[in-house]
Amino acid sequence: MRPTVLCFSGLDPSGGAGLQADIEAIGLSGAHAAIACTALTIQNSQNVFSFDATSKDLLLAQANAVIDDLPINTVKSGMLGTTDNIAALAQFLDQHNDLKYVLDPVLVANSGGCLGDLPTLVEAFKVLIPRATVITPNTVELRALTSCEDLTDATQRIFELGAQAVLVKGGHEKLPADVIINRLYVAGELIYESEMPRIDGEFHGSGCSLASFIAGRLALNDSLEKAVELAEKWLHRALERADSPHVDGQKMPRRFT
Ligand code: PLP
């Protein structure tokens, strides 16, 4: 069987983000996706209305049912929703400390909707940071996690919090206006930088898709740098061809080519 990524992520009924993004991205990366569902959200391409988080016990029961059953070598987390779920994931990773782990520190939906209580999530994420093979924050998330406005300070701070590697995604920065610059740091050192033409519009599920594709490629034993490069190229194409479900809504990455 294909190497498997176990995703801790929430259901987005619009299909743009969350566990559907994870399943599609990981499948397209060549790996298999298994899911421990963290929350059922109520949202569409425009708004997040509310969510119900899975209980800690139910979340762990899902993960435990598949961990010895499938060839899982990588974990990816997206929306965790509650501090209980963050603690449950930390416990799971402690029990399986040979797993690679991609931490997408989801705090707020791209539409601006709330996916948990922000200050509590920021504090709770600190237990997961040292455990991650790579963390994939956008600059809004990086600033929130570190309480540093300046990006150089924020990057230094996340390594002080125990990070091993961080992919800082530049899509939320206003400048440069025509390109997006992503930077991959390992042990505090910049090891890879990419520059992609900026595609007009707001996207729903772009972060989930990128992190999951990276997780899929790590599961298939690519190096981190190679996994990031392949994921960026694939996502760029999915965003170029994105669907627009509603005139006021965000675009949805077209993950299948
Ligand atoms: N996970 C879930 C369940 C979501 O609903 C969202 C956003 O709506 C996200 C993750 C993060 O999405 P994005 O990739 O747009 O940051």
Could you characterize the architecture of this molecule?
- Pathway: Cofactor biosynthesis; thiamine diphosphate biosynthesis.
- Residues 12-242 form the Pyridoxamine kinase/Phosphomethylpyrimidine kinase domain.
- It comes from Acinetobacter marinus.
- This protein is α/β, with parallel strands linked by helices and 257 residues long.
- It is 37% helix and 23% strand.
- The chain is built from 8 helices and 9 strands.
- The chain has helices spanning 18-29, 56-67, 83-95, 118-125, 139-146, 151-160, 206-219, 224-240; strands at residues 4-11, 32-43, 48-53, 72-77, 100-103, 134-135, 165-168, 179-186, 189-197.
- The longest helix has 17 residues, at 224-240.
- The relative contact order is 0.17.
- The model has no long low-confidence stretch (mean pLDDT 96).
- Pyridoxal-5'-phosphate is lined by residues 9-10, 12, 17-18, 41, 43, 48, 78-79, 106, 109-110, 115, 204-208.
Topology (SSEs and partners):
Elements: E1 4-11, H1 18-29, E2 32-43, E3 48-53, H2 56-67, E4 72-77, H3 83-95, E5 100-103, H4 118-125, E6 134-135, H5 139-146, H6 151-160, E7 165-168, E8 179-186, E9 189-197, H7 206-219, H8 224-240
Parallel strand pairs: 1-2, 1-4, 4-5, 5-6
Antiparallel strand pairs: 2-3, 7-8, 8-9
The structure holds pyridoxal-5'-phosphate (PLP).
Features of the shown structure:
UDP-N-acetylmuramoyl-L-alanine:D-glutamate ligase, six-stranded mixed beta sheet, 8 helices, 257 residues, PM/HMP-P_kinase-1, binds pyridoxal-5'-phosphate, phosphomethylpyrimidine kinase activity
